[in-house]
Structure to design on (199 residues):
């Protein structure tokens, strides 16, 4: 039985490698047969044959471009700083059309600014255009601006560009201003003064 599984594994590997075909040096640093072009001839996506630096970023894996030629997404081949945040190798990075950090899929729990953001399983961490943290999933309940926010993979915590709490699901009852929020309910706060008194 084991030899049959080994034979099947070798067969699938050879088929997969055969589909890629031989490497044409002119396609480097991308793997020949993986370069997809748009109708206008611009690159849409391609698989790197080996890690490479593209537009100043240490990239690996599949690379995608916006239709204006700006990098859209890639995996970091090494730890790298983007928008003032040190992101670990294997982070999937998503840039907007202006080349600014928009989203990241962290490979593990990672401190981004003042907060630890949950990583793994394509869990999203989002950023405002100025690079400040916009939305994240904490690994544990977290107190921000006096509100205990629930740790969840379904309900992110949102922050205003100034770092104040914007939206979250509350983990314990809280009164913000004149309004009572029961545990398990969603809160939304203004990022501008006067800030509500939270108790």
């Amino acid at each position: 039985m084991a030899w049959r599984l080994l034979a099947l594994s070798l067969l699938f590997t050879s088929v997969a490698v055969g589909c890629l075909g031989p490497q044409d040096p002119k396609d480097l640093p991308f793997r020949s047969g993986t370069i997809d072009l748009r109708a206008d001839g611009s690159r849409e996506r391609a698989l790197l044959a080996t890690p490479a630096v593209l537009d100043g970023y240490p990239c690996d894996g599949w690379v995608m471009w916006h239709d204006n030629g700006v990098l859209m997404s890639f995996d970091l081949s090494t730890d790298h700083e983007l928008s003032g945040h040190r992101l670990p190798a294997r982070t999937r990075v998503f840039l907007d059309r202006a080349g600014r950090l928009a989203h990241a899929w962290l490979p593990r729990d990672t401190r981004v600014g003042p907060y630890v953001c949950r990583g793994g399983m394509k869990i999203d961490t989002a950023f405002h255009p100025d690079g400040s943290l916009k939305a994240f999933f904490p690994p544990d309940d977290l107190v921000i601006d006096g509100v205990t926010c629930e740790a969840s993979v379904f309900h992110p915590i949102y922050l205003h560009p100034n770092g104040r709490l914007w939206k979250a699901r509350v983990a314990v009852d809280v009164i913000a201003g004149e309004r009572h929020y029961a545990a398990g309910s969603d809160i939304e706060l203004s990022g501008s003064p006067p800030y509500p008194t939270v108790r």
User: Anything to note?
Assistant: The chain has one helix and 20 strands. The first strand starts at residue 36 and ends at 37.
